[in-house]
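look at this fold:
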Amino acid sequence: MRSVRPFALDPMTIRGREFQWGTRTFVMGIINVTPDSFSGDGLSRDVDAAVQKARSFAAADADFIDVGGESTRPGHEPVREEEEAARVIPALKAIRAAVDLPISIDTFKPAVASAALEAGADIVNCVWGAVPGIVEVAARAGVPLVVMHNRNSTDYEGDYVGEIIDSLGRSAEEARQAGVARVIVDPGIGFGKTADQNVVVLGRLGEFVERLPYPLLVGASRKSFIGKITGLPVEERAFGTAASVALAIGAGADIVRIHDVEMLVPAIDVADAICRHGSARNARVAAPDLSTSTGPKS
């Protein structure tokens, strides 16, 4: 049974597109310009490949593109600001010139976030929540901020799902107090959680929807818990991702962040038809004005 929010969410206008939360599930396609992405799709500094992928995402009806230049997989090598910027800024500029979708920059470094916004990004996506510096960058630029739950340990006391929800609520409030008007929350699947904990969090996503007055982004794509369940390598986890995405939609997710956009958009449309609309219609086609251009680009 689909979770119902006890409050309405205000629409967000991002790059001239209005996102009316709850009308359908919005799709964020992942572009990693890293040499060591956990998902095996890192493009390193191949700008042409990044642009080609962005165009394919746009053609498949993605709503956002998320660009990242530092792997956050377990055991990853930290990347200096200069190196991360050298990876993401050329790719981001080229993607911005090629497609008009809203772009998020996946970083927790304020200098990289600031440079990315100057290069044409529209959203800051921070894997460490309301990080000092990142919050100020988003507030000054007037852009949405995705705050994700993360921590260095998987040891929780008591009800860890409740703890994660409370932590996200605090991060979102800190961002708002600092001047960020538009906040999106992400439970952080695969971050600071064991495989079993990830499964439980996904099974209880409805509690996030019911308790947090913010749009919910879920990023379970290709994550290691899918590999643990199926025994499949990362490049063969699209169907496992589809299952987790469909169930997340059933729980009320507003945005799903995925690698295999072309393959999974039909699954998302079917889940929306069943969970949101109760009819065999494609909201992406039937109501194109839900995220189409409504004004000048910013």
Remarks:
- The two ends are 38 Å apart (CA to CA).
